[in-house]
Structures are given as structure tokens and as C-alpha cells.
Amino acid sequence: MFKTILIVDDSAMIRRIVSQLVQQLGHRSITAENGLLGYELAVEVQPDMIIMDIEMPVMGGFEATWQIKADKRTTHIPVAFFTALGSEESIEQAKEAGGIGFLNKPICREELSQAIRDILGTN
Q: Is residue 62 scored above 80 in pLDDT?
């Protein structure tokens, strides 16, 4: 059964690549180019999962996730952070913001597939 996954990243190329991978894995993807649009889409669409970049213009991933987790309409949506910044500090901030996973760029199909299975419990 397919799930809807929201990909929030300021890079059009990253959004396109991850979106294609999500679709190849049998899921529906929607995208947003910054955290504010990601938050608004999360409220509107109610995705099953969000893959959130950390550093973006307008609103970064940590702030967007805090808003998603503070909003009773979206607090249940799992958020996996997606970034090239794999430092311990970033991982700790991701957890504090409410993230439950951490994916490193560049992403490969196998890592993405495993993260979706782990977070959503899908095959």
C-alpha cells in the first residue's frame, strides 16, 4: 500500500531525485522548496511521512518541524531530517525538534527504502 511522502528541500535537483526514488519505491511524493511551504503542505495534505532538509531559505527544517510538531493537525506525522550536515550537534538538534530519523546526502535508494520501512512499517 502506497504512502504519501512530503520532501522538503530548497534544491530542485534534490527534490526531483528523492521524489523519483520515492515513486520507484511505490509511494506518492509531494515536494516543497522551504520549511514554510512544507509546513503548509503538511497541514493541507496530511502526508504519512516528511523528509525535511535542515538548511533552507525562508524557514529552515528545525523551525518547520517545531511548527509541525506543535500543531495538533500535524503532530502525528513522522519527520526524518535530510542533510549533508551529519554532525553530532545536528543530530541532537534534529531529535530536539521532533525528528525521528536522520538521512545523509547524497541518499541512495537502499537507504531511503530502509528509512521508509523503519519509520512507516511498510515493506
A: yes
